[in-house]
Amino acid sequence: MRFQPKTDAQIEEERAKALGVWPIGVYDFEVSGAVDEISSKGNEMITLTLFVYNRDGERKTIKDYLLESIAYKLRHAAASCGLTAQYDRGELQATDFNGRSGRLRLGIEKDTSGGGYPDKNKVQDYEKAAPVASRPASARKPVPAGAGSDLDDSIPFGPCWQ
User: Fold this and answer.
1) How does 132-142 read in b/e, with b if 16+ C-beta sit within 10 Å?
2) What is the rounded distance in angstroms from the CA atom of residue 134 to the CA atom of residue 115?
3) For the whole model, what pTM was predicted?
4) Residue of 96, 127, 107 lying closest to 33 (CA atoms)
5) What is the pLDDT of residue 48?
6) pLDDT for 133
7) Per-residue pLDDT reduced to its tens digit, 90-142
8) Domain 15-139 carries which CATH code?
9) With helix as H, strand as E and coil as C, how does 102-147 read?
10) Where are the domains of the chain?
11) For residues 12 and 19, is the Cβ–Cβ distance under 8 A?
């Protein structure tokens, strides 16, 4: 049998692509929505809806949950979004995150319940970096009409980053 040998990284990238998940790495994000909520254990939390962008400008929507009990992630999310002053005061509201951008470390969550759920991407942590808005417009491709249920495709003009 003849074949093209591949590294473990290449095999993992192909596997992730086949499962519809992006490879582990650092990605740009924008907060498209944020809500103050109460967790199932009764703790205050902020639920973020994130638009995550890969190098080709493709977008994926991911939810993340910020809680005081995951202190490193809460602090790093605030720093990545330019909200260090609010964090240092001990007061963050969901509305503080709306429209903010930064960089995050994306991981892959595997099903541990044995229920046969597919692998999915999850936010492992946030990084302090230049906001997405500072990237050149050519680095992001617009999302085509009808490509996602999270857009109102009836707006008669193009994305603001063009």
Assistant:
1) beeeeeeebee
2) 42
3) 0.70
4) 96
5) 98
6) 52
7) 999 999 999 999 999 999 998 888 777 888 999 999 998 554 455 444 445 55
8) 2.40.50
9) EEEEEEEECCCCCCCCCCEEEEEEEECCCCHHHCCHHHCCCCCCCC
10) 15-139
11) no
